[in-house]
Amino acid sequence: MCPVVVLKAPAPEGVVDHAAYVARGGYRLLKRCVAGELDVEMVLRSVGESGLFGAQGPAAMEWERVHREPTPRLMEACAGQDERSGGDRVLLQRNPHRCFEGLLIAAWAMGASHLRLMLVRGGHAALQAMLAAELVKLRRRRPYPGMPDIVLGCCDTQPRFEAGISRLRQGIETLYWVPDILDGGAEWFAAQRMRPRMEFA
Question: Are 79 and 162 within 8 A, CB to CB?
């Protein structure tokens, strides 16, 4: 894993930053989860009924599997740089905090205390700089006390998981839709799947 440095590079255009995201009601769903208004079973059911897929199957089943494993648990969001995962970078560039909130909700549901956001084969300096800066803002204004930090890293290949730790790797696009599923409902999300991908709210 290579170290991430906050570079002096211009941020990608059109970024929904922390202030804008919060102004739109961002992190409200995460707070409801932590407060107990939405419990783990309810979240898993909604995600399961939505048909949302993770890296190796239905996302809810992947989360539930890791939730049953011993602690500590690691949740890792990966953005690759090939054709199939190129959309992950677009989502991170346009609305990083929506991706962060999806990651944090998934981590809460599976009881993960270690969170990583990995950029496979690096990426444009502006994207890395923007993500690092927005994560700093998130740490300074945590939606709830004790929220685990999201560690940003980059690597040349998909990183191997450490031995002796329960873990789950998810793509950015999977996590991006989690807040919308909990807000709009499983049926709403299923209907959106019939529309063109990558609608940026």
Answer: no
Are 154 and 1 in contact, with CB atoms under 8 Å apart? yes
117 strand-pairing partners: 77, 152
Residue 42: which residues within 8 A CB-CB, separation 6 or more? none
CA distance 58 to 115: 20
Q: Which residue has the tokens 């962060």?
A: 100
Structure tokens at 103: 């990651």
Phi-psi region of 177 (alpha: psi -120 to 50; beta: other; left: phi over 0): alpha
Distance CA 86, CA 187 (A): 27
Q: What is the per-residue pLDDT across 109-133, written as a single tens digit (0 to 9) for each?
A: 999 999 999 987 756 788 899 999 9
What residue ranges of the chain have pLDDT lower than 70?
Answer: 1-13, 81-86, 122-123, 156-163, 193-201
| SS3 of residue 35 by DSSP | helix
**What is the DSSP secondary structure assignment for residue 52, as one 8-state letter?**
-
Q: Distance of CA 134 to CAs 24, 61, 73, 137, 168, Å? A: 16, 30, 24, 5, 23
Q: Tokens 């809810």 map to which residue?
A: 60
**Cα 138 to Cα 141: distance, rounded to the nearest angstrom:** 5
